[in-house]
Amino acid sequence: MERTFLLLAAFIFSSGQCQDTDPSRDPDASLAVCKPDITSAAVPRVAFTATLGQPLGPVPIDMPVKYQGIISNMGNGYNPATGIFTARVSGMYYFSYTMYNNDNGLVANSVMSLMKNSQRMVSTWDIGNDGNDSATNAAVLQLEAGDNVYIKLYADRELFDDGMHYNTFSGFLLFPL
Fold first, then answer.
1. With contact defined as beta carbons under 8 Å apart, do 112 and 169 qualify?
2. For residue 103, what are the β-bridge partners?
3. What CA–CA distance (Å, rounded) separates 82 from 79?
4. I want to staple 71 with a disulfide (CB 3.0 to 4.6 A). Which of 2, 20, 43, 49 is the partner?
5. 58: cis peptide before it, omega within 30°?
């Protein structure tokens, strides 16, 4: 809960939507004096969360995960047909994903990475003699308009999912540049 609050506060303050809330000028400044302009067209609204919803793999080659279940897709930057988010505006973005591995009694075999264009940013890894594990990773990335972000599942690796939607991919614009 605290993490969500801090991210929201960082977004509101960094997007220029607060007036005179600099603690050096006003030590009593807080979110209570912040009045965001939710009608402003100057701040693009970009946010998405997508879920897998079914098992995937083992896959024959490295590939983007195509999260088909759309929970939200404000700005339509995420494409469920490709599994790729494309930045429509340059800015600082926050991305996270959760990986849930083998719930089939076999050896865990899940390895994934958050990719910016074709460059690995962060990864999760779980192989071994246990199952029912999950891992989450996240990053704040500076993107130019047209940059792509996706989750790569590596060759011969797999994910477990079902209607509980354990595997997710989310992102949102913190502020434009």
1. no
2. none
3. 6
4. 49
5. yes
Query: Hey, what are 105's tokens?
Result: 């009694």
Half-sphere exposure of 130 (CA within 13 A, CB side): 6
Region 1-16: mean pLDDT is 44
Q: What percent of the chain has pLDDT over 70?
A: 73
Q: Are 160 and 104 in contact (CB under 8 A)?
A: yes
In a 10 Å sphere around its CB, with 0-12 CB exposed, 13-18 middle and 19+ buried, how is residue 173 labelled?
buried
More confident residue, 25 or 74: 74
Q: What's the rounded Cα separation, in Å, for the pair 56 and 109?
A: 11
Q: Is 105 helix (H, G, I), strand (E, B) or coil?
A: coil
pLDDT tens-digit map of 68-114: 999 999 999 999 999 999 999 999 999 999 999 875 666 778 999 99
pLDDT tops 50 at residue 162? yes
Q: Which amino acid is at 9?
A: A
Which regions of the chain does DSSP assign to beta strands (E)? 47-51, 63-64, 69-74, 78-79, 84-86, 91-100, 108-116, 119-128, 134-143, 148-153, 168-176
